[in-house]
Fold:
Amino acid sequence: MSAEFPFHINSDMPARMMAILGEMAAGQEVYSIGECFLDVTGISSLTPPEIYGQQMRERIRRETGLIIGVGLAPTKTLAKLANHAAKKWTQTNGVVDLSDRTRQRKLLHLTDVSDIWGIGLRISRRMNQLGITTALQLADSNISMIRKNFDIIVERITRELNGECCIALEDAPQPKQHILNSRSFGERVEKPEDMQQAVVLYATRAAEKLREQNSRCRLISVSIATARHGNEPQYSNTASRISDYPTDDTRDIIDLALRGLSAIWRDGYRYAKAGVMLGDFYQSGVAQFDMFSEQQPRANADALMAALDGINRSGKGKVWFAGQGERDSSWQMKRERLSPRYTTRLEDIPGIKKFHLMMQRYIARVCPD
Structure:
């Protein structure tokens, strides 16, 4: 089964949607910010699938205000097609059930081969040359011919179109292989100390993301660049440093990032952007350390990073490294046009914001000190 909402919104509401859908199924794979696959095996013995899909839509609408499309089918590829149809045709009321083989073939006949999940424009053109223009023609194609002309992924898709489950549900998301934290500056950076503050901040955020997926890294890259357009001199460069051991310690990552920065910094330029990228990942608890290396992980590093993350996630306070400088530094990205956080910040809610301003004025008048 595939569930998805068809428009862009901030990440808070999709997270709420995913939590609700996860409660309504035996298994869940979050495919993107607004789409997931659900394991609803056996639900047909309790309630008709279309009714269950409508129940999902109603609960999401009632608890979040979001309108979603629901596609039900025996395989992920068919579920994607059903979801696409649920959003495309209003007469479906947002739910399409492809449990029936006859309905599957009817939809496959109406679907262009290029609209199949996993079949891009390049592959669809090759299929057109072989006389395959619809999803139904692909489903009816000889598997040996598909295997000969395409790769194993296309073969699996073809089998899935025929109701054979070949792409398993991934309950746990795969860890990222690279983590990049990069931002454009609010003002051009000309001083090395300002650039160092930016790199420390980006390295800190990248390290937090690294720990969130329970990984360690050895490769730390830092990049800096001037604006690409204009009459000013242009310069960009990247430097990478390798840690002697896999680390998720923010202090190690900052140290290596600053070493890389010192190698590529050039005076006389007005820098517009910088970034820190982490790579060469190892799973925490599995990484192999070199017992003969002169550099070893810092004592109690894991406990310190856990305490640091715990404080910063608690909402009761923030701890950051002094190298980041002031939190309102001039090089920070401008945020005057930041979208209101209606779902997570009370003072941003229309009405509450005005009341909050009135209370501030009242308190200032009653307690001027």
In short: Strands lie at 2-4, 27-32, 35-39, 69-72, 95-97, 179-189, 215-226, 236-247, 271-283. The chain has three domains: 2-161, 179-324, 340-369.
